[in-house]
Amino acid sequence: MTALSILDLVRVTETTDARGAIDNARDLARHAENWGYQRFWVAEHHNMAGIASAATSIVLSHIAAGTSTIRVGAGGIMLPNHAPIIIAEQFGTLARLYPGRIDLGLGRAPGTDQLTVRALRRTLTDADDFPRDVLELQAYFQPVQPGQRVQAVPAAGTDVPLWILGSSTYGAQLAAEFGLPYAFASHFAPDLLLPALQIYRARFKPSAQLARPHTMVGVNIVAAETDAAARRLATTQQMSFANIFRGARTLSQPPIDDIETYWTPIEKAQAGGMLARSIVGSPETVRDGLRALIAETGADELMIVSDVYDHRERLRSFELIAAAGSELATERAPGTRHAESIV
């Protein structure tokens, strides 16, 4: 059975401020827990007016406090922006507050522009230290060793599970070498999805955290009662991508009737490439799309983005997606192996 999880963008909209966006994320996580989603992640972004999760660990604490069983984590922390000990302290604290529920996904990109990287007091060359930083961070979560002079208090002994995130084959190779679960960002960079999964599975080395490969595939899904209604809701994300190409970091915008009146042919082509694996439609369309994606990728887990403007319609989208996933689960042939638990 392929698990379903959520990546929430914590969107600040034209009608919802940052506090509202964070509270909506918490409310969505509470519903997602009841609908059977396995994880609820948010991502680190800086200098983006439309995303309220820059202080990722603080947002995660707010979400975890409003839920009781769903796993909560970062998808991800952009490790080049931080000293590993700081991230260990933050996520070790989360693990003490919410034991057995915290995940830590790690990305190599800065998650922002070069000017903001400088404001973060980091440099783009820090990304070259990513493998070493992952190992350093992992060590902070292990029990304290004799003679260890630097500890990430209170992280030691929490064994927070790490994930490697990627949109190229680099992350796949690293995750395989370190024996960590791998999440591919095909919700915005789908081109190398299949080659990356193949490399990861072929080169995977078992580790203390994970005995065999575990793959997560990011996917945009917008569900509504009809295909037409879903396509209209999806224009919010399409406009967001068009605005990125224009260099505009705007708030999330309400859906429109005709996206062709908004973007240029070039923007349409650019956005179309990045959103190529999106599933948009009625419950039946979503179910068929999920089935096809799982069959193609063999993913153990799907990390779903449903970038819908109105909170109530976004809740409905995720509810319909969960129902479609449940229908697929009943189709699973007897004897099919369940995805291995990595927690």
TrEMBL record:
Residue ranges annotated for the Luciferase-like domain, each copy included: 5-300
GO MF entries: oxidoreductase activity, acting on paired donors, with incorporation or reduction of molecular oxygen
Gene3D superfamilies in UniProt: Luciferase-like domain
GO cellular-component term (any): cytosol
Pfam families, per database record: Bac_luciferase
Membership in a protein family: To bacterial alkanal monooxygenase alpha and beta chains.
Protein name: Luciferase-like monooxygenase
Upper lineage: Bacteria, Pseudomonadati, Pseudomonadota, Alphaproteobacteria, Sphingomonadales
